[in-house]
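Lab intake sheet, docking and co-folding queue.

SAMPLE TYPE: protein with bound small molecule
LIGAND NAME: manganese (II) ion
LIGAND FORMAT: SMILES
REQUESTED OUTPUT: full 3D complex as structure tokens
PRIORITY: normal
SUBMITTED BY: R.K., bench team

The fields below were copied directly from the construct record.
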Amino acid sequence: MHLDFIGDIHGHADELERLLRRLDYRPDGDGYRHPSRQAFFIGDFIDRGPDSPKVLRIVRDMVERGAALAVMGNHEYNAILYNTPLADGEGYLRPHSEKNWRQHGTTLEQFRDRQHEYDAYIRWFRTLPLYYEGENFRAVHACWNPLSIGLLREELTDDRLPDPVPQELQALETPLARAIDRVLKGPEFDLPEGKYFLDKDGNPRGALRHKWWKDPRGATYGELSVHGTDPELESLLYTGENTDYYGVTEKHVFFGHYWLRGTPLLFRHNVCCLDYSVARDGQLVAYRFDGEKELTVDKIVAV
Ligand SMILES: [Mn+2]
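RESULT FIELD (auto-filled):
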């Protein structure tokens, strides 16, 4: 199995085409094809960037013609909820608030006067698996968490969202809603009693998104945080549980989501994050996987 895992695209069609050509894919239909490999898109095709419709044409065509595989990102998930009405007819599972418009509005503007096309993509999003496990690798948008994936395996048929989309997904109050949230957006843990930090908008937060690929034993909150904390927490030792940690003997895991900066690198021989912030002046990144036992940094390709 020869797969090229491709990170978060966020509407950057030019970079996507450049990356596919760099990987020796050739134009085929609306998309591209490689004679002996498949692409694997790990979610977040839309929002923020200049041409989400074109990215979707390419990605969907490649998936439907067998030139690529894909899993859902949180932006596709949010778009589904944004377009699913509440049962009482009063609004949608994801409210049409100003904050949510800021996230999804660029895509909506780009599909202006093409509502049919947009609706068809929302239906297609619903066919995407929430996670994927192969013989020697795993792929997921934000977090391979054994407890959450285990729950999804029990609750869902064929790894996809139920049809119709369950109303319970409007809030994080049920195990299913929380498991999907964790897999597509990443896990959080609570800070010690009475501790909090100020997020980038200045709001106090009592829970921290953390590096689930890092062993929390003996680590500080600062070392485990995927965003900044505050000086007091930086040096405070983590004393909570170890349930999210992805161990060194697990299958290779490929994911995106974390808006990394700088030169692409590997987190570990079996942990590969491919989101290098193409939508914030970063790079679109791929990993060329040929079944190797240990991942190596020279197989990362960036444009
Ligand atoms: Mn994401």
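REVIEWER NOTE: Residues 8, 44, 73-74, 141, 257 surround manganese (II) ion (CB under 6 Å).
SIGN-OFF: pending second check by T.M.
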